[in-house]
Specification:
D-Maltodextrin-Binding Protein, domain 2, 12 helices, elongated, alpha/beta, single chain, 9-stranded mixed beta sheet, 2 domains
């Protein structure tokens, strides 16, 4: 599939609040990136909005909140990056008005009740953040590392235990691999990043990874760490370590190239976006629920199949209409041209494609 140009989202005519711009952190300071300061003086929105969820969205949420609060000075948005599982649980219980999640709501979750939603209505999944997942490493004497899905699966399941294992050596003929033991770091909390990581392994290397995709890491091997920041810290501070995390947090760590087709490829936002664009929407859900069934089987080296789609999960209709208005405006901003640009600049996210943007805009319009 040829890469298409990823246009900014279609105009989302929700409120004047969506004519927003990126600016400084909650404490203010940096200049706005586009837009006009007039939006801040004309906004009629007010109130407090609480979101809990994916740590992968952390950097983007900080920037989104700063811009949204600048344009809407009577609104306070709080986002706690506790993880996707905690976010969905908090949203279901009514402790959060929206959730950030790298996993869409499950069928079991959708079959239950949502405390913040109006009676007899359900929640919907709105894609707002697309990002590659990086396989990060900190191995003495190794700066470049090639891995295929089967080898990654065997490392994280505990079948491959040393860095100079023949399977790793065969993929890295020019590397001097130490005989040291591998410390594989996984998420200890329920994590949508883990679900996407295990989904990739199961679909691309089913002979090596028989476990179902799940938010909970399925093995006791290796080392567990809380949240994206915990994984990055454990890999950074450990010795001969490897882990997986949202690519925006990779920092100075080594990042493995993944085998796609016959080539080893680095992650790119464009490669991640191409996989999402070629994937279908999950069938059998609410009309405005845009859960995506990622197709990771690509052999096109311009694609990067280890990707996550992170959602804003919201009610179709809120029991509290004022909360519904705030959620609609805020998620509308996240999916807007300015919001997607902020996520790209602050977190290296891939923008929604024009087609997906149109679907997202239509879904957001129905929130009330």
């Amino acid at each position: 599939m040829k890469l298409k140009r990823y246009a900014a989202p279609a105009v989302i005519a929700i409120t004047a609040a969506l004519a927003l711009s990126a600016c400084a952190s909650n404490e203010g300071g940096a200049p706005a990136a586009g837009g006009s300061s007039d939006a801040a003086t004309t906004s009629a929105l007010s109130g407090t909005l609480t979101g809990i969820g994916a740590s992968s969205q952390g950097s983007a949420q900080e920037a989104w909140i700063a811009a949204f609060q600048t344009a809407n000075p009577d609104v306070t948005v709080n986002y706690d990056p506790q993880g996707s599982g905690a976010g969905r649980e908090s949203f279901i219980s009514g402790a959060a008005a929206f959730a950030g999640s790298d996993s869409a709501l499950s069928d079991d979750e959708l079959a239950g009740e949502f405390a913040s939603c109006a009676p007899d209505t359900k929640a919907i999944d709105i894609p707002v953040y697309i990002s590659p997942i990086a396989v990060v490493f900190n191995v003495e004497g190794v700066t470049d590392l090639n891995l295929d899905a089967a080898t990654i699966a065997n490392i994280f399941s505990g079948k491959i235990t040393t860095w100079n294992d023949p399977a790793i050596a065969a993929l890295n003929a020019d590397a001097t691999l130490p005989s040291a033991p591998i410390t594989a770091v996984h998420r200890s909390d329920d994590s949508g990043t883990t679900k996407n990581f295990t989904d990739y392994l199961g679909k691309v290397a089913p002979e090596a990874w028989a476990e179902k995709a799940a938010d909970t890491f399925p093995f006791q091997s290796g080392e567990g760490a809380q949240g994206t920041s915990g994984v990055i810290q454990a890999v950074t501070n450990g010795v001969n370590t490897i882990g997986y995390a949202d690519a925006s947090k990779a920092g100075d760590l080594g990042v493995a190239k993944l085998k796609v087709g016959d080539e080893f490829v680095e992650y790119t936002a464009e490669g991640a976006a191409a996989v999402v664009e070629g994937s279908p929407i999950v069938e059998g859900r609410e009309a405005n629920d845009i859960a995506i069934a990622l197709d990771r089987s690509t052999t096109d080296p311009t694609h990067y199949p280890l990707v996550l789609v992170s959602y804003a999960i919201a009610c179709q209709e809120y029991a509290d209409a004022a909360q519904g208005e705030l959620v609609k405006a805020y998620i509308g901003y996240l999916a807007s041209e300015d919001g997607q640009s902020v996520a790209a600049e602050s977190a290296g996210a891939a923008p929604l494609s024009a087609d997906l943007s149109s679907k997202v805009a239509a879904a957001i319009e129905t929130i009330k």
